[in-house]
Amino acid sequence: MIANNMVTKTLNESFEQYKALVAQLSQQHSCKDGLINIPVNQTLHKVALASPEPPIPLLEYFNRYLAAKSMDPHSEELSSYYTQTRSMLQKWGSFDPNDTSILLSRERFGPKTFNDRRNCLFKFFDWLVRKGKLSDNPLADVSAKKRQRNAEQRKPFTEREVAVILEALKTDRFRKKYSRYSHAQYYPFVAFMIQTGVRNAEAIGLQVRDVLWSTGEITICRALARTSKGTNEAARKEKGTKTNNVRFIPMNAFLTDLLKPLCIDKKGTDLVFTTEQGRMIDDRMFQRRTFKPLLKELKIQERDLYACRHTFATRAVLAGIKAHEVAYLMGDNLQTVIANYYHKEKVTVALPELA
After folding, report:
1. Secretion signal: which residues (predicted)?
2. 239 and 201, same structural domain?
3. What sign does the dihedral 159-165-171-173 (CA atoms) show?
4. 3-state SS class at 344
5. C-alpha 188: how far from chain center
6. Would you tell me how many other CB atoms lie within 10 Å of the CB of residue 320?
7. pLDDT tens-digit profile of 285-302?
8. Within a domain: 143
9. If DSSP codes are grouped into helix, strand and coil, which group holds residue 31?
């Protein structure tokens, strides 16, 4: 009626004449059990009230997804790659999967963390699509962020820098006068990493039984990895190496002399590298309290402890060890070693001449 009156220009702007009609219609049509009776051409048709579909219980399905991957969703051994993604889902609560990209963009993540969360959720959503729970992957158009590696923090040490760092640690050159803790206790730990190129957690987790005196080799098969709970002894969990491979590093005279006194009178499962109190080394605390201040005293450009690994790779290649052999010793693939660890000064190479 209102529409017709507007067309014929007879609309009553006070709307008084329409109130009685509205009241009459309200009495004629009832709403019961979510159904409205609407008369159309004298016939009553029942039209269901539209109610929004309940959101998918993503947290529940995420645990099912982990179980489908033969993982225990509630295990303390579960990788932080999954536990932190699950914590994020829990924080987000109930939400429309199509809003995932918006929610993810609001998190204050660096590129690496963003990519980890994005990749984990992407694979999870792919699984939901295969199970028929989603029609498509809501992160299909969300690209990974480009990482800007802080190469300067992991730049390899020069031969001179290696020598002065090890000498300063070994002799307690910069130990504070009234400090209870010596720097010398960390000398074997740092020297071992520079000499072998192992990851921090692999050196921390090295056990006496991993040193094979009979064959002159060191087995790298485990790591004491940090967890979301921290880097201290109680927070770390023993697991395989990053690439889940086992490798054997040959011992030279330097390593033999370095490791022998550290293994005497210890059980096979004891850690090789410990503090003076016999505790596990916390690499993060060592880096912050000892290693970086020592570099500052030596007037050496600030580096992360991980620069020891880069130092090994560069020294090994320059010593003539082939890149694929360096990759094996480091427990990495060839492409990663060349892209991330192989640093060297510019070398002039003479091209072969044509006959």
Report:
1. none
2. yes
3. positive
4. coil
5. 28
6. 7
7. 999 999 999 999 999 999
8. no
9. strand
